[in-house]
Write a structure and sequence with these properties.
Low-confidence stretches of chain A: 1-9, 15-28
Low-confidence stretches of chain B: 1-26
Radius of gyration of chain B: 30 Å
Oligomer: heterodimer
Structural class of chain A: alpha/beta
Radius of gyration of chain A: 18 Å
Shape of chain B: elongated
Strand order of the largest sheet of chain A: 7-6-1-9
Number of helices of chain A: 6
Order of helices and strands of chain A: HEEEEEEEEEHHHHH
Strand content of chain B: under 5%
Mean pLDDT of chain A: 82
Number of domains of chain A: 1
Distance between the termini of chain B: 87 Å
């Protein structure tokens, strides 16, 4: 099969994915984070089964500990044996002058610490959360990587739809590669069908 | 980007592909576009393959299998082989062996090397059968696989059982690179001493065996090779042995070999010691030249002493 046929097939498949996922209605609510500092909200992530938290690793295995939001790296991870039964994720966004500087997604039960106040927006519709995040997917932008991870943690069709869109249309190769990575990490049938199509054209 | 924009881009892309396939005459810019799209597609595929490395084996295997069986670039297929080597499922190892047994050219050799990277004991043990019936490239690939996997026992078996001189030497060379001293010593007992074994002892850092050969006067040629090879091993103890061998020998060949060994080990203190002990002007000149060749600072001591009349 030559590349034209293969790309046609892939494009058509992408259209199917978009059409399939595109039936969901976007909630009318909008998130407007005006104040500088940390903001947080919970949102549905029914497919997220692993607990996203910070862990200390010792000889006997991993031990959950408080995540320091102000640290650049806080041993953030998902660890086997720790399950997230809540079906939700907790998004944290550090805002400066109306733009996110850092975005982290944890499980709601994971405790956090920071030197500053956290503005808690409580439970938000998943589409509102994803819609707010997706506006910061920009080529060659440092925050885009955080955003892709955050979106993928939401799971579901909306999340996959955005990741596929990045793969199909973004002009930042490393961001496209990240989107592919998170698609694979979603472990969903639709994502693997897409990867299969991308690689084999079938 | 909203739905409208995304759909529009995809539509434009589809239209572009359809048009480009329909156009009979292709301009230079069209060719350039095609190349860009092909490269872009290839990069996406490589990114997808990389991502599959983190996927559950059961998910990754069917896709990787299709990539390997499809009409894909060598780079993509080699990437797929690597992922296959990391999948710890019997089917993945069987596939890898299948490609190693019956694949074409470089792809086959890559499959063999990937068995080494995967390190699956059962798949590794199958490689010796391929080695016996393969050409030089295939044998090299099998040895490389064993080298990567650190399977010195398998390399020893190949060296010990082959009737082919080149095959024996290549296997011994690999054992040297692996630092497999025990296996190399066993080969000496089994096959007798040879130059390639001596070099392998040096590569493996086996100063003890080299010293034994270096002090054995029954075969001067091997003795010379062992003494020179000791310089490769280096270290204070080995260098002192080289000085001792030089001092105690009357043979020009042995002395020259010891001097080469000292040059290789960079032990200028030893050469200076020999210079001071020597009463022979010709020998002193040779040792002095050696110190110069070594770029040794000890040469200034010699000059100072010579100028003060104390030779």
């Amino acid at each position: 099969m030559n590349w034209i046929i293969r790309m046609r097939g892939l494009g058509a498949f992408a259209l199917m994915v978009v059409a399939c996922f595109g039936n969901e209605s976007i909630a009318s609510g909008q998130l407007n984070l005006v104040d500088d500092g940390w903001h947080t909200w919970r949102t549905a992530a029914p497919e997220q089964s692993a607990e996203l938290c910070c862990f200390s690793w010792t000889g006997s295995g991993a031990r959950r500990r408080t995540c320091d939001l102000d640290r650049s790296s806080g041993n953030y991870s998902a660890v086997e044996g720790y399950s997230n039964y809540s079906g939700e994720v907790q998004v944290y966004a550090l805002m400066r002058s109306g733009k996110p500087e850092k975005i982290t997604v944890l499980s709601p039960q994971c405790s956090v610490s920071t030197d500053t106040k956290i503005n808690d927006h409580e439970l938000l519709d998943q589409d509102v959360s994803i819609s707010w995040l997706r506006q910061y997917i920009k080529p060659h932008s440092r925050i885009s990587s955080d955003v892709l991870h955050a979106i993928s943690a939401h799971g579901g069709h909306s999340s996959l739809k955005i990741l596929v869109t990045v793969v199909e249309s973004n002009n930042d190769d490393s961001l496209r590669a990240e989107a592919i990575f998170w698609l694979v990490q979603s472990d969903s049938d639709a994502a693997f069908e897409y990867i299969d199509r991308l690689l084999t054209g079938t | 980007m909203n739905m409208y924009n995304r759909s529009r881009i995809i539509f434009i892309l589809l239209a572009l592909f359809a048009t480009s396939s329909a156009v009979a005459q292709t301009s230079v810019s069209d060719v350039s576009d095609v190349t860009d799209v092909t490269r872009e597609t290839e990069e996406l595929k490589l990114a997808a393959l990389q991502a599959l490395m983190m996927a559950p084996s059961e998910r990754a295997l069917p896709i990787v299998k299709k990539v390997l069986q499809g009409n894909n670039s060598d780079e993509l297929k080699e990437g797929a082989l690597f992922i296959l080597s990391q999948i710890d499922l019997p089917e993945a190892q069987s596939l890898l062996l299948e490609f190693a047994s019956s694949g074409d050219g470089e792809f086959r050799l890559e499959a063999i090397r990937m068995i080494g990277i995967g390190g699956n004991a059962s798949a590794l043990s199958e490689l010796s059968g391929l080695y016996d019936s393969g050409d030089a490239d295939l044998r090299d690939a099998v040895l490389e696989a064993y080298l990567i996997a650190g399977d010195s026992a398998a390399v020893y078996e190949l060296a010990a059982t082959t009737d082919d001189k080149d095959g024996f030497e290549e296997a011994v060379h690999v054992l040297g690179m692996m630092g497999a001293r025990e296996e190399l010593r066993r080969l000496r007992d089994r096959s007798g001493m040879s130059e390639v074994l001596i070099h392998a002892y040096a590569m493996s850092g086996d100063a003890e065996t080299l010293r034994e050969i270096a002090l054995d006067g029954s075969n001067v040629e091997r003795q010379v090779q062992a003494i020179e090879s000791m310089g490769m091993v280096g270290g204070r103890e080995v260098s002192d042995t080289l000085v001792e061998i030089y001092s105690n020998s009357d043979s020009e060949d042995i002395k020259e070999a010891a001097l080469h060994g000292l040059l290789m080990s960079g032990y200028d203190e030893g050469v200076l010691q020999l210079y001071r002990e020597s009463q022979d002007m010709g020998e002193k000149r040779e040792l002095l030249e050696m110190l110069v060749m070594m770029g040794s600072d000890q040469i200034y001591d010699v000059i100072d002493q010579a100028l003060s009349g104390n030779r």
